[in-house]
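Researcher: Here's the sequence for the chain we discussed earlier.
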Amino acid sequence: MLVRIRKLLPCQKYLTVNLVCFFVEMNVACCNNRNTKFVTKLNNLAVEVLDLLHRFHYTFAEHIFVVAKWLNFKKIIEFSKLQKVFDEGLYDPANEPDIAYPYLFSYFKGEEWRTQKTVHELLEKYYTTRPNGLPGNDDTGTMSAWAIFSMMGFYPDCPGKAEYTLTAPRFDSIEIRLAPEYCEGETKLVIKCSRTSGEGWKKIGSVKLSGKTLPSLRVSHKDLVKGGLLEFRCL
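Model: Thanks. This is the structure I predict for it:
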């Protein structure tokens, strides 16, 4: 069990540390009392719990920051496990924690294009004009909101963090009227997207906000509500 804990701990830093401490303390207490049967049952339970957490590897937004940072530092290609979710048909938007998954590729340096490609493919597959053209239950607008954000080119993939991950917009021009009581500058945000090729998914070449090139494919809510022009150049 301790070998398993040492293997998982770097990736599961925030989600497992308390459970790990609990199981270790219980093991020590039981071993001191020589209760070997209970130790065996406790270890089996620990393995099941850690397996469950590993299955939900990408569900928790604050967890992915730890995973991506640690794995990029170690130069481990963790995104292949995330890609496996889509390649093997495990992605299910009706299971709502899944809907942020395509945006998590952008947390791995050099793999941001996978977000743009995957979001395009998911919009094509799950959102149509047919009677069943919405995946699952809209759940008071959850599914529709995902589609609208994705079509506009930005998505709030981490609840509680006032940032958006960018993807290629589906429209050439979008105009968002901002409520004066919430914006900090202009009362209009205009999104423009220029493309150098025809149909199919588009890779983002660069993004500018009010004339300034963004250093990454992420933008803060504070900057967006200042209004102005958000320009995508897609290849």
